[in-house]
Amino acid sequence: MTDVARERLAEAQSELLAALLAGGPSPAGFDERLLRVEARSLLAKRRGIVAMLAPEVVDVLTDRFRPLFDEYALDHPRASGSRAREDAAAFTAWARERGELPPVAPKRWWRRNTS
Amino acid sequence: MGVIDRLGVGIGWRAEIDLTVERLPDVDFVEVVAENLHVEHLPESILVLRERGVPVLPHAVSLSLGSADPVDVHRVEHLGSVAEALGAPLVSDHVCFVRAGGLDSGHLMPVPRTRDALDVLVANVRTAQANLPVPLALENIAALLEWPDGELTEGQFLADLVERTDCYLLIDVANLHANARNLGTDPNRFLDEIPLERLAYVHVAGGVETDGVYHDTHAHAVRPEVLELLGELRSRVDPPGVLLERDDNYPTDTELANEMAAIRAVLARHG
Each residue of B155-166: pLDDT tens digit? Predict the structure, then answer.
């Protein structure tokens, strides 16, 4: 195998993921409709995993969870090697910073944790 | 078949249905997602199944063997260590990529069916095989989109991959149905082109059709068209194993048992 083959493939794969995950331009030759279907499917999968890992955040945000998550996701595509739990934590921090979630209350040792 | 022998009919083990898998009748083998396991802390349920002599096959989702990026040998070694801890006769992953340009897609992406991409895949598969203690089987994925300028059909691509790497195949008939429905793949031609003598086992899963697109969800019932494809495959070859995958929206134990019984019935009817 030539290194050239690997480089060409690297470029094509990077371009496709940038289009699907980070709002990059559509790579040439792909069906636009299928690119949209794929992008939506990947976003839905990522959103579903974060919802499963952070149900308490979904409970607070209710209807706002989906649009907020989708906005966050486009600006913060998952980096290679990152974990789903890190994604959930990063989204929570992002939403809190924007005032969408209440600030973290300091834990009081005498309060029974009922959650 | 040598290393693989007869596996029978099995189900994907998931932590959410561990007790179900233990008490379902006639579970001949199970599959576990390798990335979810730590060799030092194997789930009790997995150990129970191993004590009963049920084969447990590690299935990986993150090797990204179709990536232009070099193989992450640590991931391969983890898969190998899980296989050794479980005494598994083989391991598997997919013909796909999940990482490129510093991003992670979070799901299995198709590779271009070009000679370039095949060369890269072959090199990556050989690296993985050199770092694994047991044989590797590779699975066809459900793709929602197709790369332009493909030079080979999916069947030809897999056949060349097997010829050049001696890997086994894990054929997912639900993915085959998805590609037929969404991309126009000809399932009969696919089955004609792949080397069925290298078939390790078969995946069967449920899905749903929305807005004219079939989604391979693993969260819905198995559709009759998918069982028909299993029958089509069975009429050509007696697969060593067939495994039902269910990953979400878990139904009752009875429904899962019925889906496994339906698989057995198709195998018997077309045998």
Answer: 999 999 999 999
Domain count, chain A: 1
For chain B, domains (ranges, CATH) are 8-269 (3.20.20.150)
pLDDT digits (tens, 9 = 90+) for B164-201: 999 999 999 999 999 999 999 999 999 999 999 999 99
Mutate to test the interface with B, among A3, A13, A35 (most CBs of B within 10 A): A13
Residue A3 lies in a domain: no
In a domain? residue A38 = yes
Question: In the prediction, which pLDDT does B5 show?
Answer: 79
User: Of all residues in chain B, what percent carry a pLDDT higher than 90?
Assistant: 97
CB–CB of B106 and A49 under 8 A? Answer: yes
Asked if residue A111 is part of any domain, the answer here is no
Out of B120, B123, B145, the one facing A38 most closely (by C-beta) is B145
pTM for the complete prediction?
0.94
Residue A65 lies in a domain: yes
Dump the DSSP string for chain A: --HHHHHHHHHHHHHHHHHHHH-PPPPTTS-HHHHHHHHHHHHHHHHHHHHHH-HHHHHHHGGGHHHHHHHHHHHSPPBTT--HHHHHHHHHHHHHHTTSSPPPPPP-TTS----
Q: What is the ipTM of this complex?
A: 0.93
* Stretch 52-81 of chain A: residues touching chain B, C-beta under 8 Å: 77-81
